Amino acid sequence: MASALVRGARRFPPAMWGRGFAKVASGDDIVAAAPDVALQKARSWDEGVSSNFSTTPLKDLFQGKKVVIFGLPGAYTGVCSAQHVPSYQKNIDKFKAKGVNSVICVAVNDPYSMNAWAEKLQAKDAIEFYGDFDGKFHKSLELDIDLSAALLGPRSHRWSAYVEDGKIKALNVEKAPSEFNVSGAEVILDQI
Q1: What are phi and psi of 151, to 5 degrees?
Q2: Residues 6 or more apart from 136 whose CB is under 8 A from it?
């Protein structure tokens, strides 16, 4: 089924992971690659209302900071819940020891679903969760994928990146959204 989900995806050697799917790669500025894009911090509906449905510009997330960000197909989905988020959650102290200011999880979901999912995983204290409700962030980076075959619609590839002051230092993109080989915490820790 995974091959049906990423029709036409090419296989690349490890040095090219990320380049086959994304328009960005190591050395690129993530903020410049997604101009005028903002994400929505995970929150309850009441918090959304009281914040006037505020969004967070990318420059606020990355400027002057060391950030690990990982994207996944969706909240409450199998690999995302059972492997991807837990890999970052259990390694948060190792990221902090390497000087990482924040670890961010982003998916093409609304911020309210992301909030409920983060609470269910008991991961909100360790990881910052953001929604990309319209997929604009992932489309800008060419990390979007159509998962209609799995009844998910437009979503994100499974990926991870280490970003310093907006510059991508490492980018890893899975060959299929059901795979979990290159986007986990252990891989990105070795790249910092």
Answers
A1: 65, 30
A2: 34, 37
